[in-house]
Amino acid sequence: MSRIKGKLALITGASAGIGLACARRFAADGANLVLWARRGDRMEQVAAELTKTGVRVLTAAVDVRDRAAVNRAAEALIKAGTVPDILLNNAGLAAGLAKLQDGDPDDWDRMIDTNLKGLLYVSRALLPAMVARGTGHVVNIGSTAGHQVYQMGNVYNATKFGIRGFGLAMREELWGTGVGVSVICPTFVNESGMWAETGLKAHPMAGEVSPAQVAEAVWSAIVKNRGDVDVMPVQLRASLKFVAITPGLAASIARSMGASRVSDELGERQKHKR
Question: Which of 90, 165, 170, 203 would you label with 227, given CA atoms 20 to 30 Å apart?
C-alpha cells in the first residue's frame, strides 16, 4: 500500500499509548478511522480530538477477548460497506508478571485472551473481506519480548513470540492476495502504558521509544510493505542478532547487566498495583 490518505484504518486498543499515537499519525495523513477499545468513554474523547483534523472517525466499545462481540462489530462494518483497508492489531496486556510457580492463572488467561486470542479473533473476522477485495494491510504490534526472553516474562513472552510467529506466517499465507502483513516489535515504550506506569527506566542498551516513534514505524511498514520491523536503538538491534546466534551467552550477559533485578522490580510494582 503506497499511500494511506483516504484509506480506512481500524485500530484496536486505540484509547491510549501506541493505538492513540497511530490514530493521530493516520489522521494526520488523511486516513479515516474505526477505533475499538474496551472503554467507550475514552474513545469518545479520542474521536472528538481526531475529527477536528477533518477525517471521519467511528468508535465502538469492543473487548477483543469476546469473540462474539468482535464478530458482531466486524459484521456491522462489512454490511455497511466499510471494510478496513488497514487493520492494526494493537490491543495488549501485561498482567501480574511473576515466576511461573507464583503466577496467577487468571492473569495468564487475561494475557493470552487479549494479546493472542484477541488478535486471532479480530483478524479472522475481517481478513476474508479484505482478501476478497484484493487489497489491504494488517499490522500486529509485538514486542522485543517476542525476540528475547526475560525472567518473570514467561506467559507474556509466550504471547509476544506467538504474535510474531503468527504475523510472519500470515504474511506468507497472504502473499499474492494484495493484503500485506507487518509485525512491529518495539523495545520499552515510554510516556504511557505498562512500562511507563512502573516508573522504571530501561537499561541504556535496551533504550526506550515513544508511542509516536512506534506509530511512525507502523506507517512506514504499511506504505513500504515491510514484514518484520524492530523499533529500538541500533545497539539493541545488533544485540538481538547476537541473541539469535548464541542465546545462552546472550542470557548470561543480560543477567550480568541486571535483567533479573529489573524483572523482579517490575513484578513487585505490578503486584502492589493490583
Answer: 203
How many other CB atoms are there within 10 angstroms of residue 13's CB atom? Answer: 26
CATH number of the domain residue 190 falls in: 3.40.50.720
Higher-confidence position of 104 and 263: 104
Look at residue 215 and tell me if it is in a domain. yes
Q: Pick the closest to residue 10 from 127, 117, 145, 113 (CA basis).
A: 127
Q: Please name the amino acid found at residue 34.
A: V
Q: What is the pLDDT of residues 41-89, one digit of tens each?
A: 888 889 999 999 999 999 999 999 999 999 999 999 999 999 999 999 9
User: Is 3 within the bounds of a domain?
Assistant: no
Q: What is the pLDDT of residue 258?
A: 47
In a domain, 2, yes or no: no
* pTM over 0.70, yes/no: yes
The dihedrals phi and psi of 56, each to the nearest 5 degrees, come to -85, 140
DSSP 24-37: HHHHHTT-EEEEEE
3 has pLDDT over 70: yes
Q: Is 121 a catalytic residue?
A: no
Residue with cell string 525472567: 151
**pLDDT digit string (tens) for 202-213?**
666 666 889 999
Number of domains comprising the chain: 1
Phi-psi region of 59 (alpha: psi -120 to 50; beta: other; left: phi over 0): beta
Q: Which of 36, 108, 156, 188 is catalytic?
A: 156
Q: Could you give phi then psi for residue 100, rounded to 5 degrees?
A: -55, -40
Q: With respect to residue 1, please indicate whether it lies within any of the assigned structural domains.
A: no
Helices (H), the chain: 17-28, 40-51, 67-79, 105-111, 118-133, 154-173, 194-198, 211-224, 234-245, 247-256, 259-273
100-108: Cβ within 8 A, 24+ apart: 100/154, 100/155, 103/154, 103/155, 107/155, 108/155
